[in-house]
Predict the structure.
Amino acid sequence: MPQLHELTAAQLGRQIRAREVSAVDVAEALLARTDALESLQAWVYIDRETVLADAEQRQRELDSLPNPGPLHGVPVGVKDIFYTAGIPTTACSQVYADFVPSEDAAVLTSLKQAGAIMMGKTVTTEFACLDPSQTLNPWNPAHTPGGSSSGSAVSVATGMCPVALGSQTVGSVLRPASYNGVVGLKPTYGRVSRHNVVPVSWSLDTMGWMARSVEDAALMLQIMAGPDANDPVCARFPAGDYLSGLEDGEAPRISLVTSFFMEESDEETQRHTRAMLQKLAAAGAEVNEVRLPDSFGTAIEDQQIIMRCEAAAFHRPMYETRSEEYRPLLRRLLRRGLDTDAITYSGALERRLQFITDMQVLAENADILITPTTPTPALADLTNTGNTSFQGPWTSCGLPTITIPSGLAESGLPMGLQIIAAPFREGRLLAAARWCERVLDVHLSPQV
């Protein structure tokens, strides 16, 4: 029988609502798990008394609520760039060390309305950018856990919480999710509100999260997706139903993106990816190969230009007086952004528009696209958070993307498949990912 920390958010929610386990039991189990794994340094803030008090309140509410929410009594991790009312939101930076918001982030409000308990704030790289955090990879501490959502990925992978919020400007959800052997979802740009989240880049930032199952990823989207007048780029049309068809998905038409993604992968990742596709084909999937449009040639460089310019615009007032308080890689990025001229920034934006159009056409011609999530498993290099080039293009063109664990490398480190769909086709994406998850039947857990 699985222990409480091994259950998914959906399983915990069902058991709490059925009174098979109490919200207090769950909170105590996860807090104990967190204490036992404190050396991994996944959390920047946890108030144990408040977590337990919230759990007791949720348990009492079961007597009065006719329809408790799907996450009633379930603790969630929150990356430390999401506003939390009355609780520090430091972005793991000296610059924001004293910032205590008066409101929650919009997505956290939605989670609480669904009954969730905020377990605590997870570690991020400084301002969700480049400099590695102190969080350790539970599979091998000599290898990077990824970033910027490093604490969220590690906390979910090790059972400290079943789901955790992250964000992705380049590769900050899918890369750490893959490095740690969990599911990571980045919806379509604008599908989920970014209101009251510390920004990196206004035209790239996308909310996301980590989970240990596709069902949990879908459940989180069901709760958080939808219009928000407080976010000017949030899609105005209602969210879809991401759960009802999750288990009924048919074998999808899969297009393996061979150019760049397979070419830039190491040999083991190439072999592994093709072996996984053979399994999917044997189960009924139709598999073909596609190549990227010419506009991909400048997409990665253009994304970096756009990100550093927009990050510099946000940080400029603080940078002008407190630049020495920023860590080295972020300080260098902001300096480069401030030094970039408007013509260079405008050119990158213009080329990106063509790239977005081309990638939407590519995605619409298949049920799903597939690539390796990363070119290699997590490298033994703690000076950075890993190669972002396999996730960044999908963030730049705004397509919904999910990673699912697909096995272990010879090194014993996790590997993943990255699955992509057309804009706002998260229902198709999640159903296909769930089908792939069932066929591959890979469940990874580090021995910690």
